[in-house]
Amino acid sequence: MSVVATLNKNPVRRNTAQVGLFLIAMLLVPVVFGTGYYLNMMIFIAILALPALGLSLLSGLAGQLAISHGAFFAIGAYGSAILSARAGLSPVLSTLLAQILVAVIAAGIGAVVLRLRSHYLAIATLSFAIIVELVIEEWRGMTGGMQGMLGIPPMGLFGYEASSDVQFYYVYWPITALMLLFALNLASSRIGRALRAIREGEPIVSSLGIHTAGYKTGIYVVSSVFAGIGGALYAHFVGFVTPATGSIMFAIEIIMVLALGGFDRLWGALIGVALITLLNEYALGFADYKKIILGVTLIAVMLVFPRGLLPGLIDLARHRRIARAA
Amino acid sequence: MSSMILVDLIQIVMTTLTVGSMYALVAVGVSLIYNATGVINFAQGEFVMLSGMTVASLYGTLGWPLPAAVAAALVVVVLYAALLMAITSAFAARISLIGVLIITIGASIATQGAAARIWDSDTHRFPPFSGDDPIRILDATITPQALWIIGVSAICIAGLIWFMRSTITGKAMRACALDKAAATMVGIPVRTTILLSFVLSGLLGAAGGIVTTPLTTIDANGGMLLAIKGFTAAMLGGMGSIPGALLGALLIALVETTTVTFASGAYKELPTFTIIILVLLLLPRGLVGGRHETGLHHDDLTRT
Fold first, then answer.
1. What is the pLDDT of residues A239-290, one digit of tens each?
2. Residue A117 and residue B106: Cβ atoms within 8 Å?
3. What are residue B135's DSSP bridge partners?
4. What is the pTM of this model?
5. A323 vs chain B: nearest CA distance in angstroms?
6. In this complex, do B299 and A63 lie within 8 Å of one another by their Cβ atoms?
7. Domain range list for chain A
């Protein structure tokens, strides 16, 4: 049996092989292309991939859309910033502790709002996002209010702190790759199958004795922690956070990422993040033009390819090939 | 002492009615579009913003007569509503409801960006219709514009309720909301009815923008929060019910006004959004009991 056939039989091995190859390729990039400003952009892709992967898990497995991922990104960022800058914890420890905060809040909110579906869920999570933004703006003693927080220590452990873009690159991309592997394995595990079954028909699944509410809250917590880790990595990279860090515009940008990469594709989310980051960098100088381009692109993609741009294009290519073969 | 309480009370009631009227215009608009299409229109606040900005620049800056500026604003909003109807229902059958929600989010931010290009990102206003001299009731003060807001909103919503209950077109709209297939079978032009819902909804928002801008000012990004308040109110009352939307809007305005009066202005949004999460949980059909949405159809993003 060939290696490929063996890998195809076991999804965990296949995922590990794919992500392993991807990570090796990513780690070789600075070796081949040298250092430069582009590394900064690549680090942002690694960071922003996390909330996108999180939302992709929720929309791909549960078929639901939450507008709360910007808020959890902010909670992760502010949580880790406060723990490291104000309480003096090591950034690694503060990043992990902030995730406990994210998980507890997500479990509380998730247990409540996931009884809702469709746009009711979207509105409820949007309301939560507005509350978080408000608390961040008004709790000046803790969060610094509208001015935000400065002087957040860079990511590091035992006195070794990442100080250059290359170092951040080599710390952050392995983390993102590991999270991607976790997400891929989760999607192809028994839990992923149960969630997809719930998406297809919740009453039937719960009549088979599967605790549907628990699964849904669980995936919401996991999905939110992805965003929370992204937030903490962001805070320890740029060194400051402001209320704009997790604003509603940011949540909409993550939805945009999925609209580009596909709502049920984890690799697609990664490609979507890369596209958005490139767009932000080169095409969207002014904030107003950015809003127009984002809005119009969102409308166009949803009208033409409701499952997302990338899956739509893949389908289109496949149809062409079948048509030519026939 | 008791007169102090009375003054506070009058002030709270008047502020609630003023703010509530604005929210009601948006909430009733949300309900109209929801009834026609099953979609929550995220771009509802843009009707308010576009009309406010148009009148501010034509009447306030260029010095057109007020009626001409108002007419121009109504034309702008009707065209915008028709455009919104076209993009949200062009392929509605293939797109999930969340997909259409995402389209309206896209429309909302694109409109904000376009408005910031056409005008700018500053706040705009124009002079109130009947001057700035406050009216005194005991020791409470009310600006004349507040009376305009309450009056115009009351007339618009009463007119809409009369239209929906008593005219044949209004009845056709209600029939469409209940069952599109059956409505088609008895010969109701469904697409025209949906277009009418969008236009009426837009006109309500436009009326709101025109009467409130002198008091509250407006900027290019001001629509989104209003839209969120609007569908919060509509959900609180019961999605799809016009009296429900009115009730929800007044309740939210009351909660906000009391929070601002007795606690702090900074946290005025906090109770509102806590309430909406609670209502969605405990009373998913709202206070009045709107149309129940089971959410089992067309709500999956991964399929078409």
1. 889 888 878 888 888 999 999 988 888 898 999 999 888 887 776 666 668 8
2. no
3. B142
4. 0.87
5. 21
6. yes
7. 37-287
